[in-house]
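Let's study a protein:

___
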Amino acid sequence: KFINFCLTFYLQTIFTIIFIAGLLPPAFMFPFTFKLGAEKGRFAYYIGFILLFALLGSLQSVIKNLPLGLAHFPFRSYYILILLFIGLLLYMISWILSIKFYQNREF
């Protein structure tokens, strides 16, 4: 029973992270595209992701230098729900911004 519970929990966690990762690229891409146009929006999107990964890379080196207790905090099930909520919230904000940018656009 315990092994089945752990496997189910890890699968739910992995699928939730994949779902969030699938929501984030369009959430960042659409507002840029509707505000700046296709070419400039794509360029801004790429620059944004380069900066994001640079930030994550620098944070990884900072986390490695933390004391062991802070770097390896216990993972609780509500953390994944918070991540899911944040991902959905970002997507909703992106959707609203995209609609406003598209409505204000001149053709």
Q: What stands out?
A: The chain has a mean pLDDT of 78.
